Amino acid sequence: MIRLLITSGRGPAECRIALAKTLAVLDGEAEAAGVTSDVALGPDPDGHGPASAIVIIEGANAAALAASWVGSILWVARSPLRQHKRRKNWFIGVFKLDGPPPRATVLRAADVRFEALRAGGPGGQHQNKTESAVRAVHTPTGLTVVARDGRSQHRNKAMAVERLAALVMARGALAVLDDRKRVHSGHDRIERGRPVRTFKGACL
Questions:
Q1: What is the CATH number of the domain that holds 127?
Q2: In this predicted model, what pLDDT tens digit does every residue of 7-26 receive, in sequence order?
Q3: Which of 29, 66, 142, 150 could lock onto 156 through a cystine, CB 3.0 to 4.6 A?
Q4: How far apart are CA 70 and CA 160, in angstroms?
Q5: Alpha-carbon distances of 9 from 18, 154, 156, rounded to whole Å
């Protein structure tokens, strides 16, 4: 399990919009690489997106995927909020949270809702066509994960609960003191230069 802190630092709302777009790109790359990706978002007080998020990735290619993202990310685009603003460079940072993750809480069974899904993803003719995939929803927080790698619905339920518990803890980690220090240091360490990735568009 690898945890990535993605932060807009102390940047304006445009950086938070860029953060949300980054999460979408990262999720697409994770799916293409066969890596599970779950996201815990920080507060979104004004509807422009959270200032930070923790992404939990797992799988054989997780380390390589994480390494390709760690560093500064640059979005070059016009602001959708201030059309006449000359600035077009919006930086966010991606940092790996080192050390073991917090011990996952045991979730109350009553707080988890399961939904059966038809298994998707790669596999071609060998793909499991039965409704063995499972979506697990933590009703108190609204956090959601989908597990489809197991060969049975029972196994996928167990995997979903395990990942959901880790996600609940990751969301809590955005507020606890131990991770808060790393979050704040991450805010201040965003390097506005030499980005590891650059995205360009007419508008954010």
A1: 3.30.160.20
A2: 988 888 999 999 999 999 99
A3: 150
A4: 26
A5: 12, 41, 36
54 touches 171 (CB < 8 A): yes
Domain-located, residue 194: yes
Place of tokens 């917090």: 102
Query: Taking the mean position of all CA atoms in its chain, how far away is CA 188?
Result: 20
150 in a domain, yes or no? Answer: yes
Q: If 0-12 CB within 10 Å is exposed, 13-18 middle and 19+ buried, where does residue 203 land?
A: exposed
Report CA dihedral (147, 152, 153, 155) to the nearest 10 degrees.
-60
User: CA 145 to CA 121: how far, in whole Å?
Assistant: 15
Question: Could you give the angle at the alpha carbon of 110 between the alpha carbons of 109 and 116, nearest 5°?
Answer: 75
